[in-house]
Amino acid sequence: MMIITTPAAGADQGTVAKKQAVFRAPVPEDGPAVWKLVENTPGLDSNSVYYYTLWFRDFADGSLVATVDDELVGFLTGYRRPDEPETYFVWQTAVNPRHGIPFLGVKLFQAAADQQVANGARYVEATVSAENKAILMVLKQFAKKHSAPIETRVLFPSSLFSDSHHDEVLYRIGPLTAD
Hints:
Blueprint lengths: L1 E6 L10 E7 L6 H9 L9 H10 L5 E5 L2 E11 L2 E12 L8 H15 L4 E6 L4 H13 L4 E7 L11 E6 L6
């Protein structure tokens, strides 16, 4: 478990108002709260409550949730690729914009990816829409922090999807080494 403490939004230096974000491995009971967060986050692909509940049973070791005062305010799902165990794939991430902690999404991604690198991952992957500037910034910051190159290519073209889905562009960062 990792704790991030930052001044609450609007707090001046003379106040003691600080919020703590706790990053921890998810448990199946987090499934409904994560589903609700996804449903309230524009642009994210929706999955079922069952999906998140099952994911947090079977893939908790590659995922994290963020809580503030025991309220779930963010999550990240990821896994080590079975055919490439040195590759950590980040599947989905979101944070509640009203949590009051600056750069919580960035910190959540970095904590999850750094944890995987410390456990032997040499590459971090994610698929991103070209319009998702926020996650692209996070990926570029992570690559810069690790002095690692980023390779991109279309992993799945939009023609594979039945709706007006975008191309899924793969961003592959690495090789990485633990600090």
